[in-house]
Every structure is written in structure tokens, then in C-alpha cells.
């Protein structure tokens, strides 16, 4: 039985050229009813595709036509059906963000990689951090903080000196960005079931923005984050190059 493949690509010329060649060679089905969706681009486009297709049961297989490609497989026009049939699957649950702003508005978004809070003015942010309703840090003075999934732990979280989490660890990484007080605090590893809340202290004087996979919300007063088990992104990788292997390999480079 032949696979029904739906292709999508970023606007980059190299991705559009790959889309044309692969569609001509293997056909291009509509995403509704497809057996698999093949995304051509970089990690940013892969995240966009996963968000856009979160209600579609078909898994997503990425091929790198971008610059980073941590969530992508190597590009080749040859043997695609065989690669898809032998691919390994990783299931990723995103984070659900609920942000309350100083003007009383409320914003919700999902994040596959991380939810980050960043100062939006010249002064450092002051954050109160609670986990499951219990205050764990009364005041963190910093440039920001973020909560990352295992899939996102090698992205912004790793750049901020946070830990890399195994894909099946059922954990989240809470990481400070340029902590000033307490200066040596780098963060914590929390269970996937935890709900993390940030309260912005002196929000009018020290404005803070929140971001969930590119969805930005300015002038936040409170941000509540939890894992969303009802959304499960199915991502395919070539054998031996799955997300778990990449997370382990990244720690030895």
C-alpha cells in the first residue's frame, strides 16, 4: 500500500524547489486524509507546521532545507517512502501558557519548545515563582526565565545554561536568564505534571513580555504554564537519528 504524502514548505527558495521536485516525484495529497505530512524547511517552519496541524492525526516528518534543523532529517529526494515507513516516532506534548496582562486582558498559547519571560525595558525583571500553588522563590531578579519541554531543552534553554532533558523524562526545565539575585541560581528540573506560575513584581516599572514559540504578549502581570497532555505531536525521525539520540548526542559535543 502506497503512502499518501502531503508536502509543505517554507518560503525559502531552496525549500520551494524541494517541494516542487518531491511533489512531482511522489505526488502531493491534501493534509486531511494524508498518512504523513512532510515539512521542508528549518526548525522554525517545523514548529509552525506542528502547531498548524495539531488537530491532524498524521505524523510529521521534517527534511532540513533551513539552517538549524534539530527537529529535521537530512534532505534527499531518493527513497522517501521507505524512509517514512521505517521512521521512528517521538510524541511531544506542548506547554499551555495563560498570560494575564496589566490591562486585564488574558492570552493563551501553546509552546512546543518553551515559554519564556523576558524583561521589556531597561531595568531587570523581578519575578515571583510558584510551583503547584506554593511559592518557591519570592524574588528572582533577572533578564528573564523560561520553562522548556524536553524537545525544547536544547534550544533557548540550553543557550541559557539550562539542562538537556531526555525526551522520555516526563520533566520540564525551569531556567533563569542572566540571574542577578540570587546570582548563582540556574533553575530547577520539575515534573511534567507541575504547574508553574510567574508573578511580575513592579510590572508597571519593570515591564515583562512572555513568548510561547513566537507568540509574544507584552506587559504581563502573571503567567501560568502547564504541560498539555491532550495535544500530542507525532514527529518522525530516521532510524538511529531520533530525538532521544539527538538529545543524548548534544550533551557530548
From TrEMBL:
User: Which reaction equation describes what this protein catalyses?
Assistant: NAD(+) + ATP = ADP + NADP(+) + H(+)
Q: Which branch of life, at top level? A: Bacteria
Q: Where in the cell is it found?
A: Cytoplasm
In terms of one coarse class, where is the protein primarily found? Answer: cytoplasm
UniProt binding sites for NAD(+):
43-44, 113-114, 143, 151, 154-159, 178, 215
Q: Which Pfam families match?
A: NAD_kinase, NAD_kinase_C
User: Keywords of this protein's UniProt record, alphabetized?
Assistant: ATP-binding, Cytoplasm, Kinase, NAD, NADP, Nucleotide-binding, Transferase
Cite the InterPro entries for this sequence.
Answer: ATP-NAD_kinase_N, ATP-NAD_kinase_PpnK-typ_C, NAD/diacylglycerol_kinase_sf, NADK
Q: Is the Transmembrane helix keyword given for this protein?
A: no
Which cofactors does the annotated protein need, by name?
A: a divalent metal cation
Which SUPFAM superfamilies does the entry link to?
Answer: NAD kinase/diacylglycerol kinase-like
- What is known about what this protein does? Involved in the regulation of the intracellular balance of NAD and NADP, and is a key enzyme in the biosynthesis of NADP. Catalyzes specifically the phosphorylation on 2'-hydroxyl of the adenosine moiety of NAD to yield NADP.
User: Hey, which family's this protein in?
Assistant: Belongs to the NAD kinase family.
What name has this protein been given in UniProt?
A: NAD kinase
Lineage of the species this protein comes from:
Bacteria, Pseudomonadati, Pseudomonadota, Alphaproteobacteria, Rhodobacterales
Q: Which gene encodes it?
A: nadK
